């Protein structure tokens, strides 16, 4: 029923050709383009009637050859061809809805393992899974940044059936020398307290309390009966607060990114001398005259065009990096809301609201703390 592929039949001339054709007509086999030649007869029909034609050929003892008329056609309108084409389209569409791997590309295997453990614990999904079951990028980034405060940002890239997490560590800061023991830890700004990290002192507020600038968060004075004992106040008090920032920048930006470090073997006289390297392997003096083994780290410069489609992938990470560098160490950006954005004359400007989690405790020393 479904096999209507056109065929051409060549029959060697014989006295039984005419009875053969009349028999096919009597059996309602459609024939077209019948051509009688000196040595052969040509006719066309479809594959559906080929069994009937072969039975008639055997009866009249004729020699016959069968050919497809669409051998050179790229697409044949047949049932199974359409089914195969439909399957060929559906399989990639279905696979595109599935995530097969979750990869983490970090600066060290240890950091990759820690982030993978956090991801698997926080989001208990087993690969492969449908993309609709994956939490939003903002939620993934927030949970990873909360669990790993040494990170400044987590870049999230979806490529085919993979999701790639690229953590970016916060810039290293030199630890300040320890000051004298403080008498109090005082709030430097308004915020809702999220957690304490106290080594000495007595808390004056609790988690989820609102602290106002100048409030005493931790006291270094502890009452013991009628006496007051000075133990000092030392530690950190973290609080959430909202920070609104305005920005204005050109839509065309150039960024320089450091590539992965790699070792290179340079043979003198063949490879150009490279003086810009991180470190160099010490070789025997007789070999050092001919070969150098150096560790290099190249910088790649890229130009990007900011537009509405790159707000999530380029604009927000750039602003996040700028803000996090201006905040104290261990500060975390938990959420960001783009309030407004305007594109005009090759620039983009707007406002963005950040939910900041920061240590708001400032040590205060008085005469009791000496």
Please characterize this protein's 3D structure.
With 370 residues, the protein is of the alpha+beta class. 23% of the residues lie in helices and 42% in strands. The relative contact order is 0.11. It is elongated. The protein has helices at residues 17-26, 50-60, 79-96, 109-122, 137-147, 285-288, 311-326, and strands at residues 6-12, 32-36, 40-46, 64-68, 98-99, 101-104, 129-130, 151-159, 162-169, 184-187, 191-200, 202-203, 210-211, 216-219, 221-224, 227-230, 234-250, 252-258, 262-267, 279-280, 291-296, 299-305, 332-344, 347-359, 361-364. It is built from seven helices and 25 strands. The model has no long low-confidence stretch (mean pLDDT 82). The strands form eight sheets. It has a five-stranded antiparallel β-sheet with strand order 13-11-17-24-23. Strands 2-3-1-4 form a four-stranded antiparallel β-sheet, with no helix packed on it.
Set down the secondary structure blueprint.
Layout: E1 6-12, H1 17-26, E2 32-36, E3 40-46, H2 50-60, E4 64-68, H3 79-96, E5 98-99, E6 101-104, H4 109-122, E7 129-130, H5 137-147, E8 151-159, E9 162-169, E10 184-187, E11 191-200, E12 202-203, E13 210-211, E14 216-219, E15 221-224, E16 227-230, E17 234-250, E18 252-258, E19 262-267, E20 279-280, H6 285-288, E21 291-296, E22 299-305, H7 311-326, E23 332-344, E24 347-359, E25 361-364
Parallel strand pairs: 6-9
Antiparallel strand pairs: 1-3, 1-4, 2-3, 5-7, 8-9, 10-14, 10-25, 11-13, 11-17, 12-14, 15-16, 17-24, 18-22, 19-21, 20-21, 23-24
Helix pairs in contact: 1-2, 4-5
């Amino acid at each position: 029923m479904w096999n209507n592929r056109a065929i051409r039949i060549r029959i060697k001339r014989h006295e039984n050709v005419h009875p053969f054709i009349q028999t096919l007509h009597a059996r309602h086999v459609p024939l077209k383009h019948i051509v009688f030649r000196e040595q052969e007869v040509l006719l066309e029909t479809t594959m559906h009637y080929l069994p009937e034609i072969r039975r008639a050929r055997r009866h009249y003892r004729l020699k016959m050859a069968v050919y497809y008329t669409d051998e050179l056609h790229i697409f044949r309108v047949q049932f199974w061809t359409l089914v195969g084409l439909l399957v060929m389209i559906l399989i990639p569409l279905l696979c595109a809805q599935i995530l097969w791997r979750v990869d983490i590309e970090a600066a060290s295997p240890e950091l990759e393992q820690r982030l993978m453990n956090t991801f698997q614990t926080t989001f208990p999904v087993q690969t492969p899974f449908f993309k609709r079951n994956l939490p939003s990028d903002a939620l993934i980034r927030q949970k990873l940044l909360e669990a790993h405060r040494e990170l400044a940002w987590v870049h999230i890239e979806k490529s085919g059936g993979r999701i790639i997490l690229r953590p970016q560590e916060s810039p290293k800061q030199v630890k300040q020398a320890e000051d004298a023991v403080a008498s109090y830890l005082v709030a430097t700004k308004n915020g809702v307290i999220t957690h304490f990290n106290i080594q000495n002192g007595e808390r004056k507020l609790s988690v989820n309390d609102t602290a106002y600038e100048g409030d005493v968060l931790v006291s270094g004075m502890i009452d013991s009966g009628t006496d007051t004992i000075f133990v000092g106040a030392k530690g950190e008090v973290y609080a959430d607060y909202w920070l609104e920032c305005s920005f204005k920048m050109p839509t065309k930006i150039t960024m320089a990114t450091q590539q992965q470090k790699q070792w290179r073997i340079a043979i003198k006289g063949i490879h150009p001398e490279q003086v810009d390297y991180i470190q160099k392997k010490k070789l025997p003096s007789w070999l050092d005259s001919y070969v150098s083994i150096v560790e290099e780290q190249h910088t790649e410069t890229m130009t990007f065009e900011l537009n509405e489609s790159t707000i999530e992938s380029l604009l927000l990470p750039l602003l996040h990096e700028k803000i996090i560098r201006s905040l104290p160490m261990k500060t975390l950006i938990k959420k960001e809301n783009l309030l407004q954005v305007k594109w005009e004359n090759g620039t983009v400007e707007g406002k963005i609201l950040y939910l900041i989690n920061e240590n708001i405790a400032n040590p205060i020393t008085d005469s009791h703390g000496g």
